[in-house]
Amino acid sequence: MAERELQVPGPGNDRETESLRTRAYLAVLQHPDPSRSLLIAQGMHAEAVDRALATLAAQGLVRLGPGGSIEVVPPDISLPVLASDYERMARQTRSAAHELAQVFFQARNTAAVPDPSAIRILGSLDEIGPVTAEIIATAKEGVRCFRSLSPRTQALFASPMHAHEEPTRGAGGAILPLSTVYDTQVLELEGALEVLQARERGGEATRFTTSVPFSAVIVDDTAAVVDVSAFDPGGFGSALVRARSLVVALRALYDHLWNLASPLEPSQPSAARRRDQTIWGLLAAGATDATIARQTGVSQRTVERRVRELMDQVGATTRFQAGVQAARRGLV
Q: Span 271-328: which CATH code?
């Protein structure tokens, strides 16, 4: 077995130490009666041999006996145990990352000189997705979003349907609550309702309103990604924000939009009632007749007639009044 085929992990932080440890381990594996003197006879320096054996023993790969004798623990037993130890350490490190990041950024938020890492400008649309996934993976409380009809939102809606059905997972893989306020224009995207229903199955709560100025994903009160691709299609100028004051400000904007917005929940038993429920929801969200027709699969003329009938039903003279009355009566 060549040395490059196996690397024994350990606390050494340089290639020479790692190479020596691997060489020593391979040597004792391949000899039926390994010993310290055997390793020295193979050209290793005595002091280096002692360091390598001490590390291998600490990792549970070998046991050191009297007179320099070495007992090798069978690799099918020792290596899985060692791997489990490293996996546990990795989990502990990931778990600590959230708290340590809060300490790090809180210290810099209160510093007299602003910390440049509190805001990171993103250079392209392609950076937004990975950076968003990165901060969501640290979340512990929940994720809140508001989305305009930006190129990034369009790319999100074009994702495979199974991706929308996946729950949002944060630190340690825990499933998190996700809520989003969408600009009504998003409903004009082809297949928007199917995508939104898939995201609902994945646990997303949604509301709709008009004139959402830009998009943002807010994680707890610690980080946010601001998407300005609605203004620059290439996404330049979007930002990863860790400055707590800005994150809290974005959270306040989300709360304001959420309170203004209306839900869209087509859940009545019959097909006709489901369609009316959808129309009510779209009306309350400010959608046009053309958008309603596209999302319900009927002609615009049919929509115009049904909208008029529903407005008469609740005694409304404007579409806005109809949406308000529908919300008051629990129709949306």
A: 1.10.10.10
